[in-house]
Amino acid sequence: MNVLVTGGAGYIGSHACDALLKAGHSVVLYDNLSRGHEEAVRILARRGGARLRFVQGELSDGVRLGEAFTGGVDAVMHFAAHANVGESSADPVLYYRNNVASMIPLLEAIAARNIRRIVYSSSCSVYGQPADHLIPLREDAPLGPISPYGRTKLIGEQMLQDVAAALSARDAAPAMTSLRYFNVAGCEPAGELGEDHDPELHLIPVVLRTALGLQPSLKLFGEDYPTPDGTCVRDYVHVCDIAAAHVLALEKVSPGETVTLNLGIGRGISNREILEAARKVTGREIRVESAPRRPGDPARLFASPLAAERTLGWKPCFTQLEQIIETAWKWFQAHPRGYRA
Ligand SMILES: NC(=O)c1ccc[n+]([C@@H]2O[C@H](COP(=O)([O-])OP(=O)(O)OC[C@H]3O[C@@H](n4cnc5c(N)ncnc54)[C@H](O)[C@@H]3O)[C@@H](O)[C@H]2O)c1
Predict the structure, then answer these.
(1) Ligand 1 centroid to 171 CA: how many Å?
(2) Claim to verify: residue 223 and residue 176 sit in the same structural domain
(3) 149 is an active site residue
């Protein structure tokens, strides 16, 4: 298939482009490079040859987006978005503009061209702060995002589902899959594609930056949660497993089906376990400062991956925390300052 991947120059999108190329698909990578990396595009172009076409463009620019669709597109994978919870609270308008309003030309193109396969990057943030008895979290858990970011992700799901329903009424029903990722982590084992956010707020990269001496210590937010070691528990899923789920969604969900799936390994890992595993993998001391709990952080959050397993036959390959950290450590050692290094 020829797949249009928005946000393909970013962390998860670049790994998904690579998985698509490896599975024999062709990719039109559409990205404005606002938070993505030209170097990631270069790596993918070298690997994909003629099967990778890069169109630099802004999602809200319908004319430029139209150029990306020329030559025929069978499927759309929509990753492009801003994805920083704190930034979304400080500047909600930026998030509603970039993650919601900018989607309109994409929705128009999908509807006008009867695109038959759509995969959307959603997030566990659509659930907000679920009650502890709902963990491991299933897809039918109540929705209640508590940040503007989480709300934009939910609105994105709903807009795409509405367009899919309208296409179904025209006998052009697409396969519509929303994938709600938990904490995505790690880098490809080959060590070329990696994670480079600015600022970097995800725990594993922050821990590894501290191990490299790029920052003196890291903050551990809350050590008095009702969890075995007092620190927050989350579900860390490897970026290559997320990429593999996208390829499966493309190939296994049939036109006419609307599917929403949680993607996690189904096990909780505490902040302290991350630290201990990182100390073991890196062999470095990693200094920690105690900090108060952050508002809105639930004690435990991890997925039930059963629906993804049943629907897609998806089973994460990276189930051990140390494996995940090793792949990230390899990349961070080679790229201490990200793709610029
Ligand atoms: N990283 C995670 O743990 C995580 C968890 C759940 C969901 N997600 C979702 O996954 C997707 C990708 O996240 P990521 O961590 O790879 O982010 P990222 O910032 O690394 O990648 C996003 C890409 O989209 C591009 N982009 C953003 N706005 C654009 C626009 N208006 N027009 C064109 N291109 C634009 C950026 O340049 C960047 O290359 C996002 O939709 C995010 O909400 C991420």
Answers:
(1) 32
(2) no
(3) yes
The residue whose CA is least distant from atom 11 of ligand 1 is: 79
Model confidence, pTM: 0.97
Query: One digit per residue, pLDDT tens: the chain, 341 residues?
Result: 999 999 999 999 999 999 999 999 999 999 999 999 999 999 999 999 999 999 999 999 999 999 999 999 999 999 999 999 999 999 999 999 999 999 999 999 999 999 999 999 999 999 999 999 999 999 999 999 999 999 999 999 999 999 999 999 988 999 999 999 999 999 999 999 999 999 988 999 999 999 999 999 999 999 999 999 999 999 999 999 999 999 999 999 999 999 999 999 999 999 999 999 999 999 999 999 999 998 888 899 999 999 999 999 999 999 999 999 999 999 999 999 999 86
Q: Hey, whose CA ends up nearest to atom 43 of ligand 1? A: 83
The domain of 102 spans 2-187+235-263
Burial zone of 233 (CB within 10 Å; 0-12 exposed, 13-18 middle, 19+ buried): buried
Under 8 Å between Cβ of 268 and 198: no
Q: Are residues 250 and 181 in the same domain?
A: yes
d(CA 42, CA 21): 14
Cis link prior to 199 (omega < 30° from 0)? Answer: yes
Of 95, 127, 149, 181, the active-site residue reads 149
